[in-house]
């Protein structure tokens, strides 16, 4: 069991990733037609849009000053993708028999590398108007689509052998090389895992007990309730991982009290796990540990603390557009 009052740092991450997200939008005048972003281990290193070009995050400026060819490559690829996506939207509108209006094509491509086994997994995924469109099968070097309207596009892309080989080379070789370079440069701030503080919260006496973890990084956390050491699902309402303003993340999972008898409270606990960290954070279901704003506060300090806790629990930080694209594309993997 690991009990924490403050976040700790760990250097145990095994699986690393380099992801490129690209979005082309038609029919909207108020935003750039094309936007793209690059992330290493879910940390954004820079972005590009069709109005101002490339922009780097502060931590990465020195790397790209020392390796200008990386920035030149990224800017060239982004400009090429902008024109390719624009033409693809026109084709897809015909395939789907659509009017002009607002249409969006998105791509997530990149690679994952396991630094223990050396395993490399490349991926190249497309979505159109929010739905899965095409995915590259690197084993057969063919495109896969769930959409009948995209079959003609699939066949045309399958016939582009040179482009397929370029994809294979980039995803299997060049992308992992980039990733290793970025990890070497950013090892002081990329490989740091931060564990959260975990609290038990309750809004009213009849509300579920919420096990709330906040301040963890990266966003590869898992949390669940157990009874007698076994994970349970009945009476449990899991939440989604949400971003905090400081770049860390939060997660909650609720337990309905109607499914827990008073004599059984001691048999329940909440478990938080963070990818790459071997020890779990285990929080026992204990009435005295529950933080709430429905009990009468004993002093002003207690009242203020309770108010802050409830405010932190109820406010959801807005998710950035890039995070939305990331999560959507993660669900699009085939």
From TrEMBL:
<dbReference type="GO" id="GO:0006955">
    <property type="term" value="P:immune response"/>
</dbReference>
<dbReference type="Pfam" id="PF07654">
    <property type="entry name" value="C1-set"/>
</dbReference>
<dbReference type="InterPro" id="IPR001039">
    <property type="entry name" value="MHC_I_a_a1/a2"/>
</dbReference>
<dbReference type="Pfam" id="PF00129">
    <property type="entry name" value="MHC_I"/>
</dbReference>
<keyword id="KW-0812">Transmembrane</keyword>
<dbReference type="InterPro" id="IPR050208">
    <property type="entry name" value="MHC_class-I_related"/>
</dbReference>
<feature type="transmembrane region" description="Helical">
    <location>
        <begin position="303"/>
        <end position="325"/>
    </location>
</feature>
<dbReference type="InterPro" id="IPR011161">
    <property type="entry name" value="MHC_I-like_Ag-recog"/>
</dbReference>
<dbReference type="InterPro" id="IPR003597">
    <property type="entry name" value="Ig_C1-set"/>
</dbReference>
<keyword id="KW-0325">Glycoprotein</keyword>
<comment type="similarity">
    <text>Belongs to the MHC class I family.</text>
</comment>
<dbReference type="GO" id="GO:0009897">
    <property type="term" value="C:external side of plasma membrane"/>
</dbReference>
<protein>
    <submittedName>
        <fullName>Major histocompatibility complex class I-related gene protein-like</fullName>
    </submittedName>
</protein>
<dbReference type="InterPro" id="IPR007110">
    <property type="entry name" value="Ig-like_dom"/>
</dbReference>
<feature type="domain" description="Ig-like">
    <location>
        <begin position="196"/>
        <end position="283"/>
    </location>
</feature>
<dbReference type="InterPro" id="IPR036179">
    <property type="entry name" value="Ig-like_dom_sf"/>
</dbReference>
<dbReference type="InterPro" id="IPR011162">
    <property type="entry name" value="MHC_I/II-like_Ag-recog"/>
</dbReference>
<dbReference type="InterPro" id="IPR037055">
    <property type="entry name" value="MHC_I-like_Ag-recog_sf"/>
</dbReference>
<keyword id="KW-0472">Membrane</keyword>
<dbReference type="GO" id="GO:0005615">
    <property type="term" value="C:extracellular space"/>
</dbReference>
<keyword id="KW-1133">Transmembrane helix</keyword>
<dbReference type="InterPro" id="IPR013783">
    <property type="entry name" value="Ig-like_fold"/>
</dbReference>
């Amino acid at each position: 069991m690991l009990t924490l009052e403050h976040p700790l740092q760990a250097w145990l991450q095994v699986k690393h990733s380099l992801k490129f997200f690209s979005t082309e939008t038609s029919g909207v005048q108020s935003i750039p037609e094309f936007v793209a972003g690059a992330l290493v281990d879910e940390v954004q290193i820079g972005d590009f849009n069709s109005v101002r070009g490339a922009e780097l995050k502060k931590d990465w400026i020195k790397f790209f000053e020392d390796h200008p060819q990386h920035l030149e490559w990224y800017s060239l690829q982004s400009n090429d993708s902008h024109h390719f996506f624009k033409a693809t939207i026109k084709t897809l509108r015909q395939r789907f028999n659509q009017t002009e209006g607002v249409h969006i094509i998105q791509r997530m491509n990149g690679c994952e590398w396991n630094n223990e086994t050396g395993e490399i997994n490349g991926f190249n995924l497309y979505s159109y108007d929010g739905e899965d469109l095409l995915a590259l099968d690197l084993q057969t070097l063919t495109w896969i689509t769930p959409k009948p309207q995209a079959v003609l596009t699939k066949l045309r892309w399958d016939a582009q052998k040179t482009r397929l080989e370029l994809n294979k080379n980039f995803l299997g070789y060049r992308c992992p090389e980039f990733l290793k370079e970025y990890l070497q440069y950013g090892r002081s701030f990329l490989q740091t895992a931060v564990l959260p503080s975990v609290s038990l919260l309750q809004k009213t006496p009849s509300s579920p007990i919420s096990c709330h973890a906040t301040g963890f990084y990266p966003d590869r956390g898992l949390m669940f309730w157990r009874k007698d050491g076994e994970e349970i699902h009945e009476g449990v309402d899991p939440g989604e991982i949400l971003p905090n303003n400081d770049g860390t993340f939060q997660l909650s999972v609720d337990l309905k009290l109607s499914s827990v008898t008073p004599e059984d409270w001691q048999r329940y606990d909440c478990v938080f796990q963070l990818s790459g960290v071997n020890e779990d954070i285990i929080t026992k279901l204990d009435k005295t540990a529950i933080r709430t704003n429905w009990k009468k506060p004993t002093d002003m300090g207690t009242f203020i603390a309770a108010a802050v806790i409830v405010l932190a629990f109820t406010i959801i930080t807005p998710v950035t557009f890039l995070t939305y694209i990331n999560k959507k594309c993660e669900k699009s993997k085939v």
